[in-house]
Design brief:
The complex is a heterodimer of chains A (143) and B (110).
Chain A lengths: L36 H31 L9 H33 L8 H24 L2
Helix pairs in contact in A: 1-2, 2-3
Chain B lengths: L13 H26 L1 H19 L14 H22 L15
Helix pairs in contact in B: 1-2, 1-3, 2-3
Classes of the chains: A mainly alpha (143), B mainly alpha (110).
Chain lengths: 143, 110
């Protein structure tokens, strides 16, 4: 039978807030306490998801240049759409890494997560591609 | 191995979800590599080779945090890999503009 279990394993939020908080030796990056592992893992998954989105932008740019037939009268039209998409994929990945570190810092300090710039980057990218595509289509249709 | 921190005793399914997320990311790299393989086989193989590296990054290296408390530098390797893929994609796009991909296979033309 089960005997009385002594160690209870309470999952508290703070573990060692006394010695490593604002320790000048650790600098700014060493402040705060280690957050719940689940928060750290969720932060990592968010970073990976943005990187997959970045890869999707790269694939979209590749596909536009390689698979579409060329626009009449706009010989570099596909490149004008595709190359910014690929570039913004790299920008998105770098931004995701910066936000990963920033979010982890906020988790350590128990502060609210700062707002992410990535949804705006993504929306602006899609809007830009739509406007560019429309402009190129118009330019290739008007003779 | 027993974690010392009581917070890490039960990450629940979060660790599994993260592991699966690494697998999806590796598959995404493989997909980009397969797309590149059509036009530039060498570049495509380079990108395809990144897929098992990303997979290994997520599986064989435990997610330790750096001494500073920030995520370890191995996550920066994902960003480096995506940036390399983007550069290779731009090179592919600029090199391979003459044959224009699938144009030959499309039935309508002109």
């Amino acid at each position: 039978m089960d005997g009385p279990r002594q160690p209870h394993g309470t999952g508290g939020g703070t573990t060692s807030s006394r010695d490593d908080r604002d320790d000048p030796k650790h600098g700014i990056s060493g402040t705060g306490t280690e957050p719940d592992a689940r928060f750290t893992l969720a932060n990592e998954r968010t970073f990976l998801a943005w990187n997959r989105t970045a890869l999707a932008l790269v694939v979209a740019g590749l596909g536009i240049v390689q698979l579409l037939p060329p626009f009449p009268r706009v010989p570099w039209g596909r490149h004008i759409i595709g190359i910014p998409l690929i570039t913004l994929g790299a920008v998105m990945s770098v931004t995701a890494y910066r936000e990963l570190r920033r979010n982890q810092m906020a988790l350590r300090r128990g502060q609210p997560l700062p707002p992410s710039a990535l949804p705006q980057i993504l929306a602006a990218t899609i809007l830009g591609v739509a406007v560019l595509s429309g402009a190129i289509l118009l330019a290739s249709a008007v003779r | 191995m027993q974690p010392d921190d009581p917070d890490e005793l039960d990450p629940g399914l979060a660790r599994d979800r993260t592991s699966l997320s690494w697998v999806r990311t590796a598959i995404a790299f493989a997909a980009v590599g397969a797309v590149l393989l059509r036009q530039q086989p060498v570049i495509g193989l380079i990108v395809l080779a990144e897929a098992p590296l990303i997979w290994a990054l997520g599986h064989f290296i435990s997610n330790e945090t750096a001494p500073s408390g920030l995520p370890s530098r191995r996550l920066l390797l994902v960003t480096v890999a995506v940036t390399v893929v983007a550069l290779l994609a731009i090179i592919t796009v600029l090199i391979g503009h003459a044959p224009a991909g699938l144009d030959q296979l499309l039935p309508h033309h002109g």
